[in-house]
């Protein structure tokens, strides 16, 4: 398995600290992919290719296609240092639940979003059901490897 990048470590560490169980499936065609299961919901996290700034709409398009194969309450999270305006427009017009995040500490935002979906599921309001997209912004960490954790800790992050 490839060594995780600092950004992958950061995202997984945030998710672990939020009490969400993670399973890492290695490098995908558009970055590292995590499936995070919380109750009956799947959270699909994609770390976009770090070399592409800003992240292209193709990431959003592929995420949208992937999400159509999962239940409607599945959430897709794309993580990149920056997203193009076209990518944001494409995500906002998607019928799927897509989060674009430029922030490094995304755990609380993701948990808040998943909780809002659970509350909306209990609500009868049609308006609440339309809430399916938002952009998290923040100052991203530099994309460089820093060996600040023990290897055994990193291996634990990647095991379900």
From TrEMBL:
- One matching Pfam family is Mrr_cat
A Gene Ontology molecular function term for this protein is: DNA binding
Sequence ranges assigned to domain Restriction endonuclease type IV Mrr in this UniProt record: 4-108
User: Which example biological process does GO assign this protein?
Assistant: DNA restriction-modification system
Query: Matching InterPro entries, A to Z?
Result: Restrct_endonuc-II-like (IPR011335), Restrct_endonuc_IV_Mrr (IPR007560)
What SUPFAM superfamilies does this protein's entry cite?
Restriction endonuclease-like
The name this protein carries in UniProt is: 10350_t:CDS:1
Q: Where does this protein come from, organism-wise?
A: Paraglomus brasilianum
């Amino acid at each position: 398995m490839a060594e995780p990048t600092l950004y992958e470590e950061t995202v997984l560490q945030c998710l672990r600290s939020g009490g969400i169980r993670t399973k890492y499936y290695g490098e995908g065609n558009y970055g590292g992919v995590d499936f995070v299961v919380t109750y009956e919901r799947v959270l699909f996290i994609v770390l976009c290719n770090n070399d592409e700034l800003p992240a292209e709409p193709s990431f959003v398009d592929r995420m949208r296609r992937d999400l159509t194969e999962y239940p409607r309450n599945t959430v897709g999270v794309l993580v990149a240092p920056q997203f193009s305006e076209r990518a944001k427009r494409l995500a906002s017009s998607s019928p799927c639940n897509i989060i674009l995040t430029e922030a490094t500490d995304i755990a609380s935002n993701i948990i808040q979003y998943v909780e809002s979906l659970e509350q909306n599921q209990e609500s009868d309001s049609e308006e609440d059901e339309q809430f399916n997209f938002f952009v998290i912004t923040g100052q991203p960490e530099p994309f460089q490897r820093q060996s600040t954790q023990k290897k055994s800790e990193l291996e634990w992050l990647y095991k379900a």
